[in-house]
Here is the input.
Amino acid sequence: MLRLPALVVEIAVASTAYFVASILTFEVLTPVQDLFFVDFYSSASLLFLPHGVRVLTAWLLGWRSIIALLPGVFLTYFYLAGMKAFLPSRLAGIAIAVLVAPIVFETIARLWRDIRPSLNREPCWYCVMGAGVISAIVIGILTNLAFGSPPLDYFAFFIGDVLGLFVLMLILMLVFRQLRKASS
Here is the structure.
C-alpha cells in the first residue's frame, strides 16, 4: 500500500514536470516553431515534451500515474483554455492524456511482456519508446476525435508526441550520464 506522503510526492513531481514541460513547449518551442513553419496548418507542437513526461510517468508508476499526472494535465488545460477547460471536449482530452499511456503499458504486459521497471532487469528503452509511439497514435486519434480536428492534425500530434518523447529521453539520458560521471 502506498503511503500518503509518497503519493503526494509522486503527484507533486509528475504534475510539476508535466506543467513545466507544457509551459516550455507552448511558450518557448511553439513560438520558435512558428518562426520556421510560418504556414504550418496545425496548432500542434512538433516537439511536444509533455508526451515524454506522461509516458515515462506511466512506465515508472503504472496506474498511479493517472493520479500523479491529473493535476498537472488539468492545470495545463486551464492555463491554455481558461474556463473552456471544463468543456466536454477538453475534459475528454484530459482523461485521454492521463489514461492512455498506463493502459498501453498494461496491455503490453498482458499480451507480450512486462516492460515496466524492475530491480532484477535492465530497462528496455526501445520497448518504452515503442509504448510511447503506440500511446502517441492512440492519444492523437482520440484527442483529435474529441476536439473535432481535421485529419492532418493527427499526423502533427503524432510527430510532436514521438519527437517530444525521444528528446525528453535523450535529455534525461545525458543528465543521468553526467550525474554518474560526477559521482565517480
